[in-house]
Amino acid sequence: MRYRIRVGRAAKREAFALPGYVRQRVLRIIDALADEPRPLGAKELRDRPGYYRIRVARWRLIYHISDDDGLISIVAVRLKTGPEIYENLP
Known about the structure:
The protein has two helices and five strands; from the N terminus they run βααββββ.
């Protein structure tokens, strides 16, 4: 099953503010999520069921999977500075 991908407004803004080499990797990963929503290296967030993160250099791509709807929502692309990057997620 191929999932639909929705990129939130804040995540889109964060992604386009990334350095070029990281931005290209993030965009490729987002495209690949449609076919494989839980790729090797994706980890589910402890306190948020259905939310996953993928490490991309020093940044984290955070997304939510809705299996019932076949939808992946890209929530954020943030620089990993500490556990606080996972706070205030929509």
